[in-house]
Amino acid sequence: MASTTPVFVTGASGFIARHIVLQLLQKGHVVRGSVRSEAKAAHVRTTMEKELGDPLDEDRLSFALLDLKDDAGWADALAGTGVLIHTASPFPMTMPKDEDDLIRPAVDGTLRALEAAQSAGVNRVVMTSSVVAVVYQNPMPDHALMTEANWSDPESPACHAYAKSKTLAERAAWKYVKVHPEIELTVINPGFVMGPPLDDDFGTSMDFVKRVLGGKDPVVPRLKLDIVDVRDIARMHVAALSKPETVGERLIGVSDQMWLRQFADCLRGAYPDRRIARREAPDWVFRALGIFDKAIAGIVPALGKDVGSSGSKARAMLGMDFIPAEQAVQAAAGFLIERGHMG
Q1: Of these residues, 27, 40, 164, 166, which one is catalytic?
Q2: Where is the NAD-dependent epimerase/dehydratase domain (predicted)?
């Protein structure tokens, strides 16, 4: 049910977060979002007004300038809100030299958001985690379908810096609410998020689609991806607000799995005139490249592993009918091509 008490969305300019903000507004919620600059706030407002066909005054959509790495402003920003949806977390295309560049903002930012919520008397929290906090076992199995009962092991060779950041941030959130049981937490664990952005300011997952569409690589590694549409992930966050039975639960958001070869085939089927690599390279090629390239080294432990995660719990608890993976991938590519991002 819509409320005049604002829903606070951290990282409101993010790919997933913008869809969450839109769906909240469509359902009549008042939204307050955190962004890192006035320019980001203006951009999000413009996007929402275009989507809704309606001007949005401060009574419906407002913003606070916050930084995951800085305490300033968090307590004041959450005062007077009723729900926290915490989406903010860094997600780079390439892993940094120092993994703490990802881990510290993710963990510390999560705790800042939860502490501010607790201080403001905000008891309902929905947090965006990831399947990378689920699937990276130590050692990686050859074949598995993971569920919410599984956790990634930060010590696993397959657990790259981003996966560590999401795993440790989610662990920190569950530990925090154990000490503060008045906070009712639900965690959403999306797969690799496809589907159409709401505007031309998009993030890492779209950069990956651009790379494949652009034929940047002559071959693809034997990697399996959990695929989900961004619109479904937003629906999961919003639906959880009206489902008290989701409190204390992790919910994986995944439509289906695709090997990278299938991902490329899906795009090539939709755009046959584009030079899209679809030939799989033997695993030894990427193992050899990984000796010299740290980014490639991060994928080596997952090469050839038939490992994915299941969205069945979200289907049961939230009534999700996920957009098929192929449609999600093609919607992302269609956006990039139609908006002139592929040259």
Answers
A1: 166
A2: 7-247
